[in-house]
Amino acid sequence: MGVFNRRNAVAGWLALAVGKRVVKRKAKVVVPTIDAETKKPNKSAIALLVAGAAGVLTFWRKRSGDDTDDTPAA
User: Fold this and answer.
1) Which domain holds residue 14?
2) Average pLDDT over residues 10-15
3) Distance (Å, rounded) from C-alpha 19 to C-alpha 9?
């Protein structure tokens, strides 16, 4: 009797299908959205936006300030 048979394959497929649905539902709840009553983004969305902008600015400043060529001349 093998470990991989049709019954176990169906059980595994079913577990993955149900697991995907659960994970998608949980992910939709966690995503920052705009509040329907006040028409403003919630605090986590604002924090995410500020952190993203800070990261982009930091990366941009580091890349634009690199005027020296560190490659050795051949």
Assistant:
1) 1-31
2) 95
3) 15
Instruction: Say if 71 falls within a structural domain.
Output: no
User: Can you tell me which residue has the tokens 């500020």?
Assistant: 50
- Give the pLDDT of residue 54: 95
Closest to 32 measured CA to CA, from 13, 51, 16: 51
Give the ranges where 1-74 is alpha helix by DSSP (H): 6-30, 43-64
Output the CA–CA distances (angstroms, integers) from residue 24 to 35, 56, 67, in the order listed.
21, 29, 46
Span 18-65, pLDDT tens digits:
999 999 999 988 877 776 777 777 787 788 889 999 999 999 887 776
